[in-house]
Amino acid sequence: MPWFQLVANGDATDPNDYNAVGGPSCSGPNHICAIQASPNTNNKPIITTPLRNEMITALNTNSSSTNVQLRTNP
Q: What is d(CA 3, CA 61) in angstroms, rounded to the nearest whole number?
């Protein structure tokens, strides 16, 4: 599955606020940086309920996971 990086000041729950990338490049505070998901017909991520739950868990634990990459402090 491809990686999608969240645009600056983007809404992590809005697929339109992500851009497809070869690999995420993340720095800054512990917020969502990128997600790994199947693309829709517009090459935007399909945010499923399990992925949304994984995003919430990553934020609550301040720890990246298989499909969610958090920004880390430089």
A: 21
Report the C-alpha gap between 4 and 24 in whole angstroms. Answer: 7
Sketch the domain layout of the chain as residue ranges: 3-70
Residue 21 three-state SS? strand
Contact status, residue 33 vs residue 5, Cβ threshold 8 Å = yes
Ordered strands of the 18-21 beta sheet = 18-21, 3-6, 32-36, 68-70
Residue 34: both structure tokens together: 């990128």
Query: What distance in Å separates the CA atoms of residue 27 and residue 41, rounded to the nearest whole number?
Result: 29
pLDDT digits (tens, 9 = 90+) for 32-64: 999 999 999 999 999 999 999 999 999 999 999
